[in-house]
Amino acid sequence: MSTEIFEAIKTQAANVGPFGAKLKFVLGDDIILIDGSDGESNKVSTDDVDADTVIICEKETFLKLKSGDLNPMMAVMSGKVKIKGDMGLAMKLQSLI
């Protein structure tokens, strides 16, 4: 697990209000779950459970998205990022990345 990525997501998730759903990142072999379903805060873990939205990409792609070197829409259109589940929730990701 890339501690850098996990901590960055954890910090960003703490800065936004809970979004009423579970969002899972699958970054290669690593899982990062943001659980904003309880209404109090977003909890970040490495639990591999069902989520409302699943974002699948490689770690390198995620880092490029985070740094702004890769446009999220282009990443999805080119197949570098796959989204399963609630697309509306996926669109809220800008505040987490």
Quick one: CATH superfamily? SCP2 sterol-binding domain
Please indicate the count of domains.
1
Overall residue-averaged pLDDT value: 89
CATH top level assignment: Alpha Beta
Uncertain segments are none
Could you characterize what this model shows?
There is one protein chain. The model has no long low-confidence stretch (mean pLDDT 89). This protein is α+β, with helices and mostly antiparallel strands and 97 residues long. It has a 5-stranded mixed β-sheet. The protein has 4 helices and 5 strands. Strand 2 and strand 3 form a beta hairpin.
Please outline the helices and strands:
Blueprint: H1 3-15, E1 22-27, E2 30-35, E3 43-45, E4 53-57, H2 59-67, H3 72-77, E5 82-85, H4 87-91
Question: What would the keywords be for this entry?
Answer:
97 residues, alpha+beta, Nonspecific Lipid-transfer Protein, Chain A, 5-stranded mixed beta sheet, 4 helices, 5 strands, 34% helix
